[in-house]
Amino acid sequence: MKHVFAVATAALLTAAPASANDPLLEEVIGFTGQIFHLETGVPGLVIAAVRDGENAIASFGEIAIDSAREPDGDTQIGVGSITKSFTGLALAHAVAEGTVALTDPAEPHISLVSTLPERGGRHIRLVDLATHASGFPRELAPVEGVERYSDASFAANLEEDALLFAPGEGMAYSNIGFDLLAMALSERAGMPYADLIQETVLDPIGLSATGYARPEGDNVMTGYDWNDDEMDPGDPISNRFGASQLYTTANDMVEYLSWNLDRFGEEGTEARSISHAAWVMRDGLDPVFGMDESGQMDAMGLGWVIMMPEGERPLLLQKAGGTNGVFSYIAFAPSRGVGVFMAINKFDFAAATAMAEVANDLIASLAPR
Question: Between these two residues, 283 and 12, which has the higher pLDDT value?
Answer without folding.
Answer: 283
